[in-house]
């Protein structure tokens, strides 16, 4: 434990339960939805994943920060509202490390709390559901923390995608290429596929995976119109991940409806993008009690074909709200049987609730990028 100070910081949950610990990273107060992530690796990617915008993450892994921060793995310039850990390491040690973890948090103004019983906190969240909370290193008493919480909207009904989406079109230039990116070599000699990606809070690694599979990507803002998209004559259209409640991303749902109706261009959606496809097809989404955030979620339809997947979502599509004439469920989350993948009947359109870009996480689902490319190839 880094017992540098007296206990000087606390977490207050909306139900009044308080945990006292130590502050690290930036000092001050922050409020957001308290969620937990069970991954044992990848804290840099998680903290910079735009899908966590508006949330405070509790890491169940007992110590993070050990491998420092590098210049390649951040998913975006956005970040979480705050982080909660059992312990953090000030002693970063890794050949790729360029920055000390704590220093990075201070520079990014991310408020941290450590030294609390994160197992007890996660048990509360699992039995009561995710809830808003405050972490503070200031002299806030319980009542003022509860007042801050009561002035903070719940995640349900929040459109946060517009806050993290790009405001202008841009062409993505691939950044990191690793051994995992061998397909770049395979696709080097063929014409690139022109993909329009709708940015609801896109992770950089998704763009890198698309590029590795031979796509040239034009990224468009979340409020782009049907005409905007078609004016670029895309071979394929990608709907990204992103934060907030999918049912409030009305521009995106409307765009997906028009594109699905048009139906001629292959489309692929990940996480928020998948939920938007479900809503555009007339389905409904609902809030999960405490969500799925981790790197070991089994998905598939039968015992022979299970993928271990990386996940980060708090909402899901209600399977009973989907028309079986329009859509087929291709994957379930095998832990709780929630919908994890869809494909449209007779249209080159599919989506998954999980994260095949696996950043961080296992690479089992990378074939989905190949599938998207195959659909574009069939159309050539
Ligand atoms: N990673 C994502 O795209 C998350 C989607 C959505 N915000 C949810 O929490 O369910």
TrEMBL record:
Pfam family, one: CPSase_sm_chain
A GO biological process held by the record: L-arginine biosynthetic process
SUPFAM superfamilies referenced in this protein's UniProt entry, alphabetically: Carbamoyl phosphate synthetase, small subunit N-terminal domain (SSF52021), Class I glutamine amidotransferase-like (SSF52317)
SMART domains membership: CPSase_sm_chain
Keyword annotations from UniProtKB, A to Z: Amino-acid biosynthesis, Arginine biosynthesis, ATP-binding, Glutamine amidotransferase, Ligase, Nucleotide-binding, Pyrimidine biosynthesis
Catalytic activity: hydrogencarbonate + L-glutamine + 2 ATP + H2O = carbamoyl phosphate + L-glutamate + 2 ADP + phosphate + 2 H(+); L-glutamine + H2O = L-glutamate + NH4(+)
Subunit structure: Composed of two chains; the small (or glutamine) chain promotes the hydrolysis of glutamine to ammonia, which is used by the large (or ammonia) chain to synthesize carbamoyl phosphate. Tetramer of heterodimers (alpha,beta)4.
Purpose of the protein: Small subunit of the glutamine-dependent carbamoyl phosphate synthetase (CPSase). CPSase catalyzes the formation of carbamoyl phosphate from the ammonia moiety of glutamine, carbonate, and phosphate donated by ATP, constituting the first step of 2 biosynthetic pathways, one leading to arginine and/or urea and the other to pyrimidine nucleotides. The small subunit (glutamine amidotransferase) binds and cleaves glutamine to supply the large subunit with the substrate ammonia.
Name assigned to this protein: Carbamoyl phosphate synthase small chain
Organism (species): Prochlorococcus marinus subsp. pastoris (strain CCMP1986 / NIES-2087 / MED4)
Gene behind this protein: carA
């Amino acid at each position: 434990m880094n017992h540098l100070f007296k206990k000087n910081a606390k977490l207050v949950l909306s139900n009044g339960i308080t945990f006292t610990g130590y502050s690290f990273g930036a000092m001050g107060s922050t409020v957001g939805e308290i969620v937990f992530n069970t991954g044992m690796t990848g804290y840099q990617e998680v903290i910079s994943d735009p899908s966590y915008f508006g949330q405070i993450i509790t890491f169940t892994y007992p110590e993070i920060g050990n491998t420092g921060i590098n210049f390649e793995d951040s998913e975006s310039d956005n970040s979480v509202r705050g982080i909660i850990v059992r312990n953090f390491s000030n002693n970063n040690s890794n050949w790729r490390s360029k920055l000390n973890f704590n220093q990075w948090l201070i520079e990014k103004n991310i408020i941290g709390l450590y030294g609390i019983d994160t197992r007890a906190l996660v048990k509360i969240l699992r039995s009561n559901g995710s809830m808003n909370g405050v972490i503070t290193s200031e002299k806030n008493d319980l009542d003022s923390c509860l007042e801050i919480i009561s002035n903070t909207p719940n995640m349900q009904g929040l459109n946060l995608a517009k806050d993290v989406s790009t405001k202008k079109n841009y062409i993505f230039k691939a950044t990191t290429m690793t051994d995992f990116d061998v397909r770049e070599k395979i696709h080097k000699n063929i014409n690139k596929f022109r993909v329009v990606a709708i940015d609801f809070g896109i992770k950089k690694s998704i763009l890198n995976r698309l590029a590795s599979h031979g796509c040239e990507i034009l990224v468009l803002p979340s409020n782009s119109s049907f005409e905007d998209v078609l004016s670029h004559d895309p071979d394929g259209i990608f709907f990204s991940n992103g934060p907030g409640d999918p049912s409030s991303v009305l521009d995106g749902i409307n765009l997906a409806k028009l594109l699905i109706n048009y139906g001629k261009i292959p489309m692929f959606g990940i996480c928020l993008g998948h939920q938007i496809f479900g809503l555009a097809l007339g389905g409904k989404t609902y809030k999960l009690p405490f969500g799925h955030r981790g790197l070991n979620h089994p998905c598939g339809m039968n015992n022979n074909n299970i993928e271990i997947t990386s996940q980060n979502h708090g909402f899901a599509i209600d399977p009973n709200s989907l028309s079986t004439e329009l859509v087929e469920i291709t994957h379930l989350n095998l832990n709780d049987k929630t919908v994890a993948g869809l494909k449209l009947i007779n249209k080159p359109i599919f989506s998954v609730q999980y994260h095949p870009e696996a950043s961080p996480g296992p690479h089992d689902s990378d074939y989905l990028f190949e599938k998207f490319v195959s659909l574009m190839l069939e159309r050539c």
